[in-house]
Design goal:
Layout lengths: L22 E4 L4 E5 L10 E4 L2 H9 L6 H17 L6 H16 L6 H18 L4 H31 L7 E4 L14 H10 L5 E5 L6 H13 L3 E4 L4 H6 L5 E4 L3 E3 L4 E4 L2 H10 L4 E4 L5 E2 L15 H4 E2 L3 E2 L12 E4 L6 E4 L2 E3 L3 H9 L1
Parallel strand pairs: 4-5, 4-7, 5-6, 7-10, 8-11, 10-15
Antiparallel strand pairs: 1-2, 2-3, 8-9, 9-14, 12-13, 15-16
Length: 365
């Protein structure tokens, strides 16, 4: 059956911002499509599927990565599960959706947008299921996924608008990991702020870390910045301290995979070290993320840190060995930056400043 998502029509208003199509719903073919980030910057390959299990695998293997992009993709995975389940009754369809929900939920443990998006889609499905029409549930699930997609784009642009106020003409901005179009629905959070400032005509420059071990900076930031024509310099992950000490950067802006109400922020491993370097050299350190990344808890122990395959560290992108094949490796994908090192948190609803225990809950009201 052909199921449409009227919510996606709203994307037409933002075409000027969506120069990179990181993911989208192909309405004509009823397929979810995404740009495989593992192959960039050397190959631009789009994958497509009608199977939610394939979406789950894409999230788990980092074909799709970045908290907002993971959330949107998981929502579309639920849409695929609904459309192609073959269930004739609402009861059977809801059982299929529950199975897809669990499969997608178990892909990545840290990115909070994943759980937020899945819960939102399931809540919409349960509400529609009360009317007893399976096809209406299918339509509602796809429409909710489309709404989440559009809202992510709108949030990104709003984050860019708010964050632009923090950047002066001539600033050099240091960033860590990829937080641009490839990590979202097409514009970006931290890199979206940089992109917005560039569109406003500010003469800025970016310093991006390589971001070991998956090299999101060296591969993805470089690819996005070159496409935009934004001047940049690539550095290794061990260099931010010297960069800040020598006054080579004016501020740092990073993204987040999970933020809690105390302001503790989980982001790509190495972010904490960037924050320390900025703090010790009296440079502002900002986090940029949509409010869908904020978990309503005050307990930092609720943040789950994903530990990934040791071979990501033993090799470069699984291809070239860097050390002995049996060497012991610790490979956490994220670290947590305490709120005392964070100057401000930029969201689509505005900028939160310390104390975060007061400012962040206000944003969620």
């Amino acid at each position: 059956m052909v199921v449409s998502a009227p919510s996606l029509r709203r994307l037409e208003a933002y075409e000027e911002y969506l120069k990179v199509k990181s993911l989208y719903w192909d309405e004509e073919k009823g397929e979810f499509v995404w740009l495989d980030t593992r192959l960039l910057p050397f190959e631009e390959v789009y994958r497509r599927t009608k199977d939610y299990n394939r979406v789950a695998r894409a999230i788990k293997t980092l074909e799709i990565r970045g908290a907002p992009a993971i959330g949107v993709s998981a929502a579309y995975g639920m849409a695929l599960a609904a459309i192609y389940s073959g269930a004739k009754t609402v009861e059977d369809l809801m059982r299929d959706l529950e199975k897809a929900y669990e499969t997608l939920r178990n892909t990545r443990p840290t990115a909070y947008n994943l759980f937020w998006a899945l819960d939102r889609v399931m809540n919409r499905a349960r509400k529609e299921a009360e009317k007893g029409d399976a096809d209406r549930v299918r339509e509602a699930v796809l429409d909710e996924a489309g709404t989440i997609h559009v809202e992510d784009v709108e949030s990104n642009i709003a984050i860019g608008r708010h964050g632009n106020k923090l950047i002066d003409n001539g600033d050099v901005i240091l960033t860590h990991c990829n937080t641009g179009a490839l990590a979202t629905s097409g514009f970006g959070t931290a890199l979206g702020i940089i992109r917005y400032a560039w569109y406003e005509g500010k003469k800025i420059r970016v310093i991006t870390t390589e971001t070991r071990p998956i090299l999101q900076g060296a591969r993805l930031n470089v690819w996005e910045l070159k496409k935009e024509g934004i001047p940049f310099t690539l550095i290794t992950d061990g260099m931010p301290g010297l960069v800040f000490m020598r006054g080579m950067a004016d501020l740092a802006i990073v993204g987040a995979d999970r933020i809690i109400l105390t302001g503790h922020t989980a982001n790509k491993i190495g972010t904490y070290m960037v924050a320390l370097a900025a703090f010790d050299n009296d440079k502002p350190f900002y986090v940029a993320a949509p409010t869908s990344t904020i978990q309503k808890t005050y307990n930092p122990e609720d943040i789950v840190i994903e530990v990934r395959d040791p071979d990501e560290v033993r090799t470069v992108l699984g291809r070239y060995p860097l050390t002995l094949p049996d060497v012991d490796v610790f490979n956490p994908s994220f670290d947590i930056t305490p709120p005392r090192y964070i100057t401000g948190i930029v969201t689509e609803k505005g900028i939160a400043y310390p104390p975060y225990t007061k400012s962040l809950p206000r944003l969620l009201d």
